[in-house]
Design brief:
The chain is mainly alpha-helical and 179 residues long. It is 64% helix and 3% strand. It has a two-stranded antiparallel sheet. It is elongated, with a radius of gyration of 32 Å.
Length: 179
């Protein structure tokens, strides 16, 4: 049976009678409650859906008229237990930091191949101290890494000599390499 409507006496518009709007079937309603429970508790505690599905209703309850009751144990779990579950995102963040360094190294080598000194210096600025020092020393002491054209070499070593991120000994050697 569908919804019933009545005409507004003033405007003549049809208005639905709210008591006649059919509700979802029991199967649909149960599935909606299961989904909202999995999503809410999964996001609240950073739990996988399969884990939330297997937890008893008494521990992670269903919603009551659209609201989830938070008990004292949920508050304790939020502050004490959840940080232990939240370590995988922290680990991913740390891994992304190292991948930024890898991207900067890739940019360094690409700039060296194309002899683009400005990109090379930007890539060096993005690196942490030790990897930056290692790359600069390889560039300064391994002649096969230098550009083949003598003018490009001079430009590279001039830029390195005036670069603020290089340490004093590295700038000095860049000046020696200039001749």
């Amino acid at each position: 049976m569908g919804s019933m409507y009545r005409a507004d006496p003033i405007t003549g518009e049809l208005q639905v009678q709210h008591s006649t709007i059919p509700g979802p079937s029991l199967q649909v309603d149960d599935e909606a409650r299961r989904l909202s429970r999995r999503i809410y508790w999964g996001l609240f505690f950073s739990l996988p859906e399969k884990f939330v599905m297997r937890m008893p209703i008494g521990l992670l309850s269903n919603d009551i008229r659209g609201r989830f009751p938070l008990k004292l144990m949920h508050q304790w779990a939020w502050y004490l237990i959840r940080p232990f579950w939240a370590w995988p995102p922290l680990l991913m963040w740390i891994l992304q930091l190292s991948s930024r360094s890898d991207l900067a190294k890739r940019d360094f080598w690409l700039a060296l191949e194309t002899t683009n000194c400005s990109i090379l210096l930007q890539a060096l600025e993005q690196l942490r101290l030790k990897p930056r020092r290692d790359l600069i020393e390889r560039l300064l002491f391994q002649r096969n890494l230098r550009p083949r054209d003598i003018n490009q070499q001079k430009k590279l070593f001039t830029d390195l000599f005036y670069c603020k991120i290089l340490e004093a000994d590295q700038r000095t050697y860049a000046g020696v390499a200039l001749g």
